[in-house]
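Re: that chain you flagged

S.,

Sorry for the slow reply, it's been a week of failed gels. I finally had a moment to sit down with the sequence you sent. For the record, here it is as I used it:
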Amino acid sequence: MTTGLMALILALVSWVWVILLAGQVRQRRRLCQWLKDPRREIPEATGAWQDIFSRLHRLQREEQQGRQALDSHLNHFRQAAQALPDGIILLDGQGRIEWLNTSACRHFSLDETRDLGTLAEQLIRQSGFYEYLADFRAGVTTRTPLIMTRNGDHPRQVLSLLLVSFAEAGILILSRDITEIARTEIIRRDFIANVSHELRTPLTVISGFLEQLTEEGVPTGEVAQRILTLMNEQARRMNRLVEDLLTLSRLENTTQPPRDEIVDVTALMESLLNEGQALSAGRHVVEMGEMMAGRIRGSADELRSACSNLVSNAVRYTPAGGTITLSWHLDEKGSAFKVMDTGIGIPAEYIPRLTERFYRVDKGRSTATGGTGLGLAIVKHVLARHQGTLEIQSEI
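Prediction finished late last night. Pasting the structure tokens below so you have them in one place:
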């Protein structure tokens, strides 16, 4: 082989290597550009580079799909946390708010965006919270919730707050609105106190007279008659209270619908009129007003009890010489029983509370009239079971 041919071959080989090297450099440059922005379309390539690009593109797509799936799961968890009625606040190691849900914002008047990154102690300025959080950080862990009361610009709110360790140094603040539970507990305590008070008075009277009767020199004549009369009145008062308590308890605790009976309105109204006149004993004018005959469906005993309570209230709170008018009429809303009297009247601010158990506008006058303080509570429950409503209009 001549020297000239060898030189030509070497030159051709060198050019081939140069071309191949330039191609490799160009593919590497394309790879670097694509890696900077994988969202761009994959570059065209040949040979091994095409396989590399394809593999990288597949890995990038799988990673993107995995990230999207993770984001989707995270969004589901966040949506679930947002839907919870309990408040959730996530604090980092320094006590700054990392995340919170809508209920927590409502409980503590916070903002989901504005208050991120702020120390919890600066935003939750409630009695005992700072000490509760400090004790938790110091390792004085307790499963007893902190009960907090918030007034502020909102109606009185009672919250139960609990701290839970999260991740390495994070803390979860869990809050629950227990306003209704606290209100129910107050009502229960008041109910027990009121029942005890209502029973104590007649029991004291009866036991006091019994002591006199068992001592020497037992009263006789008019004195004995007066004592026996008072004892009988107090015994009847206790009996009415117990009966009303049992009726109210049955109405509140029953899960059965009221009996489906046909109630004759005319017979019911005549019975109520006679009852009102007997209770009045001639002290009032108890009369029948508008009367539209008809029939309704429901529990005859419960409906009569509700209507009777309204009549007896009118008699008790109307001074002698007053007028009490009973009426029954039909309109587009349905049938309505109405009791109108010329009694002492009720201030407007007290009307919303009249159906509370043992609630009395004037305790002294109510005790003197012989009422138990449970009548309108019974009316409310009976009407609720019969899809009815109680409307009260009154003037002093």
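What I noticed first: The radius of gyration is 41 Å.

Talk soon,
D.
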